[in-house]
Design goal:
Layout (H helix, E strand, L loop, with lengths): L6 H21 L12 H10 L2 H14 L17 H55 L3 H4 L2 H16 L3 H10 L12 H4 L7 H7 L2 H16 L4 H16 L20 H16 L10 H10 L7 H9 L1 H11 L3 H12 L3 H10 L10
Helix pairs in contact: 1-2, 1-3, 2-3, 2-4, 3-4, 6-7, 6-12, 6-15, 7-11, 10-11, 11-12, 12-13, 16-17
Length: 365
């Protein structure tokens, strides 16, 4: 990472400063006054913005301009300088140049190291998010496959259409994959049940947003994060995890939030999650086409979903369809995995998935 200004123009500025400072020293009476110290400025600036040998050359040029050959000690009475005086001054200029260059190179090296460490930590952060999302999807990967990956693309498209503030936009895209992390605590017997859930089973399912919030709270507590960007990242993740099953009319769960009480990140995640769930095959529902999914989301405008988010979704629905087509699940893979998961023959499992129950339109998580 190099944040230095363009070297050519920096060099021109440093060189141009030398005759100006020389003239100022001359008109103010000669080298016996304090104006000679102005020459340290281009010397140090060259070390900061260019490199050590350019700074050293400017130091030597400055020393020679203030030498006894080119300027007297007193320009009024034309009293010459002592040779030792200007030689020591030249040596000081060079010494300051080299010392500044050493310090700057050390600090620049440390800055580059910290930059690369920050980049690496960012990669680890994204890897950790992916691992947590995978942990949740391991419970029903047969049916969600690329679900979390698609959600990130949907969220990016929707945030762009809504002109979401850049930091929030990035956080939503990066953390939406965590929306169902709380499903790790939902028993397989409930999560994978092909038939209709009983009321007490729905109560179990409805706990997963709160469980997800507890997981993120634990991460935040153990990490002892103080960085504003990290805290913002975790805050957005918590909003999505805890709020993506809230409904705009207040009939959702876990807290029954209504309207703008639901964070924008969660309102966006809700549309993305429901669209993908409608397009996906589950043990308790069939896969719907794009047109049907759009109709069902449109029907939920103002009740299930934020009207503004639905309007933005309708404006970019073709992009949603394209994302699904690019990253969709292969039905044969879904069916085979389901059979393996149930520990039965594939043909028997397919009977349960395709013919044994009435398709459901809800998403279990």
């Amino acid at each position: 990472m190099d944040v230095r200004p363009k070297r050519f123009w920096t060099l021109i500025a440093c060189i141009a400063a030398l005759p100006l400072f020389y003239a100022l020293v001359w008109v103010t009476g000669g080298t016996h006054n304090a104006w000679t110290h102005l020459f340290y400025l281009p010397i140090i600036f060259a070390a900061l913005a260019i490199n050590w040998h350019t700074s050293a050359l400017i130091a030597v040029a400055s020393g020679l301009l203030l030498s006894g050959w080119l300027i007297p000690r007193d320009t009024v009475e034309m009293i010459p300088q002592l040779t030792s005086a200007w030689v020591i001054r030249l040596a000081m200029f060079v010494a300051v140049s080299l010392w500044t260059s050493v310090v700057v190179d050390y600090l620049r090296g440390r800055a580059d190291q910290l930059y690369h460490e920050t980049v690496e930590l960012t990669r680890v952060q994204h890897a950790a998010v992916g691992a947590l999302a995978d942990l949740a999807e391991m419970r029903d990967r047969e049916y969600t496959g690329y679900h979390s990956r698609r959600l990130g693309h949907y969220a990016d498209v929707l945030c762009t259409q809504l002109q979401v503030e850049p930091n929030l936009h990035r956080n939503i895209v990066d953390t939406i994959a965590l929306h169902d992390i709380g499903k790790v605590a939902i028993p397989d017997a409930v999560l994978m049940k092909p038939g209709k859930l009983e009321p007490h089973e729905w109560d179990v399912v409805k706990r997963h947003p709160a469980i997800g919030e507890q997981i993120l709270d634990s991460i935040c507590r153990h990490a002892e994060a103080t960085s504003e960007s990290v805290l913002s990242f975790l805050s957005t993740a918590r909003e999505i995890v805890g709020g993506h099953h809230e409904r705009y009319d207040g009939t959702g769960y876990p807290n029954g939030l209504k309207g703008d009480q639901i964070p924008l990140s969660a309102r966006i995640a809700a549309v993305c999650d429901v669209y993908d769930s409608l397009r996906s095959k589950r043990p308790y529902k069939k896969r719907f086409c794009h047109e049907t999914a759009v109709q069902m989301i449109t029907k939920g405008r103002g009740t299930h979903f934020d009207p503004k988010v639905v309007d933005a979704f309708l404006a970019v629905q073709e992009k949603f369809a394209a994302i699904w087509e690019q990253l969709k699940e292969e039905e044969a893979t879904v069916q085979t995995a389901y059979a393996q998961r149930r520990g039965t023959r594939q043909s028997g499992a397919l009977k349960i998935v395709l013919g044994g129950t009435t398709p459901r339109t809800d998403d279990r998580g």
